[in-house]
Amino acid sequence: MNTAPRATLSAFAATLALAAGVTGCATSTDDSPTEAGSQANTSADNAAYTATLKGLDRYYQQRLDWGPCKDPELTRTGTQCAKVTVPLDYAAPKGPTLSLTVSRMKATGSDRERRGIIQTNPGGPGGHGLGMPAQLRAKMTPRVAAAYDVIGMDTRGLGESSPLDCGLDSISWFRGAGFDRASFDRVAKKSADDARKCNKKYGDRLAHYSTRNIARDVDVIRGALGERKTSWFGQSYGTYLGAVYANMFPDRVDRLVLDSAMNPRDYGLKMFQAMGPANEKALDDLARWAAPRDGEYHLGKTPAAVRATVEGLVRRAAQRPIQVGGDRLDHESLPFVLYFLGTDDIDNAEYAKTVRLLLDAAAGRTVEPSERLAGLLGAMFRTDETGTGRDYASALAVLCADTTAPGNAEWYRKAIEKARPKQPVFGPFHNAPMPCGWWKAKPSEAPTKVSSDLPALQIQATGDTRTTYEQGLGMHKAMRGSKLVTVPVRTHAVFVGYPNACADKAVNDYLLTGELPSEDYTCPRDQQADGR
């Protein structure tokens, strides 16, 4: 699950690039949708869906009218936007519809140089995707930029795509469950209440916000663009979406890049729980970095002392919330801040500086939050103003349409206590009650069993705290035709967000030539990333 390390709940923004010069093209008879299905979707539901495919022609043949994006910053980058209509329920194509917003940056080359489209997803679920074309284009070589229209999309229920709004005024699942029973009960109640708010407002509609339906939306966009095939770049959750699409529509896939992949078998609660040990490890890494710099940050002269300082800060927040600007961080909300600060090893200085600031605030000093800390506080405490409450509802809608979770609060309490000895900071955070346990609309179809021989390039960081390296190995095993490029750093979403010339070359070479490396390999760490 991505969650943007810089300032918001959303992991990263992503975009879908739309094909140049094909606006309004209709799909021919040969381009009618074909869905392979998956080994886990051979049920009557899947058969019923297949029987309705012909009823989707009007969606695949719709005209896309391109114009300026709602966000002037996107327009400034040369990005265009358009609306796409898709059915809420693909098994009922004549029923209610959704309006999705997609974005495009055209290929810079001639028709002869142009290869096609590359669709994208920034992660999440819940990551806004309209800005992803500009982010991806910035890392493309001129020859690759000449070859692809880059496509971005806000997925169904998110951002500018018929957004969901359950009226959530906090991020219940992103709170630590604390040290005592009263704190746990408070977090568990909030999680269940968030689910009930969404259930009350949207009811059975929530069953249709699944990854499988988002993959169908991706294919409608491909068809509406008049393209027989699409390439794909996904990071974090976007790797899962790309793998699901590849399994459902294997004959429509051109080139497939999976950056910071999750294990498709663990998608959901297990994946979130796997982040706990990874974030404790990131804290240990910070401690090793900060100890020799005690003269600057005053966090402790040994790694053990630095860790003790951070653990002590969380305990102090339980006794007396920390006043930062107009916000109060307690032991339930503080792990949220530490979770985001530990994403990138090149941010160790900012991580240490923020811990020092919070220590000063806990001691009663008046402090001003940094821009990044202010963004994180806004994401947690001002969800209506920042939009994170709506993004959170969208993320839950996808997760709960895809997976189920225990609806017994006691199950989570036991999981927390089991994790706490080895995960004193993040165990209560990454095992907190999941709203899906109280979700009314259960998944309408079985999840896709990701299992494919299709060629794919996978980029994975060894210290990833979101989709851990072990999680990535699970995707590598499921996508048997993939080649794995390992990057020995702590980061999430390598290509767009981290300086590594070797990984950049691997992605650009593959997109340009379509040739995968002959074998898996490990990149060296860039010297420019060592000045952390």
TrEMBL record:
InterPro entries to which the protein is assigned, alphabetical: AB_hydrolase_1, AB_hydrolase_fold, Pept_S33_TAP-like_C, Serine_prot/Carboxylest_S33
Keyword Metal-binding annotated: no
Region (Disordered): 24-43, 109-129
Example GO molecular function: hydrolase activity
Domain Peptidase S33 tripeptidyl aminopeptidase-like C-terminal: 430-523
Positions with biased composition (Polar residues): 28-43
Annotated AB hydrolase-1 domain residues: 122-291
Annotated keywords: Hydrolase, Signal
Signal peptide: 1-19
The keyword Signal is annotated on this UniProt entry: yes
Family: Belongs to the peptidase S33 family.
Protein name according to UniProt: Alpha/beta hydrolase
Species of origin: Streptomyces venezuelae
